[in-house]
C-alpha cells in the first residue's frame, strides 16, 4: 500500500454542497447520480490501490462459464478498510459521508460495511434486487455510494435504477438471483417507475437507498469494471430481529456484538460523520 498524497487527503475533507433540487430528486426517486464527486487524481490513485488489494485477496476462481449467475456478476470483497489503511482513507472520507447524510436527511452516518465489486471482462449481469433484503436494520435510512474507479460506458455494465421503486413491496423478499431478475423485470416493466440506464463519467458517483431496486448489465468489454462501494446507515440505526437467514448472517458478520433493539455501535460500525 502507498501513503495517501496530501492533495487527496485534503480533497476528501472538502464538503460537497448539494442543491435543493438534488435533495428533492433523491427523496422522490431514492437514487441520484452526482458528477465530479471525486477528481481525476483521487480516482486514479484509488483505482491502483483498490485493484492491488482485490488482487491480493482474490483466490483462484473457476472459469466464468462454470459459475452461477451471481458468480459471473462480479468479484466481491468486503471491508477493505480493515485490510488496508490507504483504502480506509476513502471509506472514512468526510466528503462522501456528508453527501450520504445530507441525502438521507439525518444528522450523521456510520459505516455498515464496504465492498469492492469488480466485474470481469465478459462478466454477466447483476440481477434486479434490493439490498435491504439482506440487512437486519430497523429503518430505511440506509444508502450505498457506488464509486466507479474508471469512466464506465454502457458496455461495461454500469448500475441501473428503477426510479422510485422503493415504494414497491413485491419482490422485497427475493435474494439476488435468476428468479429475482425474471420476476422484477416483469413487475417493473408494468409500473410507472422509470428505468434509468446511463454511463458514468470519471468521478461520477451514485447513491441509492436500501429498498430501491437496481441491477447492472454485462461487461461486454475486455477490461475489468472496477467499482468500490460504501454502505452507510443513520448513526442512530437500531438492529432489528432478523427476518431471514441472510439478515442473521449479516448481523454476525457486519455488526457482531450489536443487540436487537439497540443502536448498532460496534467497532465495525464507526460513526464517520455527524453534523
Automatic annotation (TrEMBL):
InterPro entries the UniProt entry points to: Phytyl_CoA_dOase-like (IPR008775)
Identify the domain of life. Bacteria
Q: Which GO terms describe its molecular function?
A: 2-oxoglutarate-dependent dioxygenase activity; iron ion binding
Cofactor(s) this protein requires: Fe(2+)
- Report keywords, A-Z: Dioxygenase, Oxidoreductase
What's the protein here called? Ectoine hydroxylase-related dioxygenase, phytanoyl-CoA dioxygenase (PhyH) family
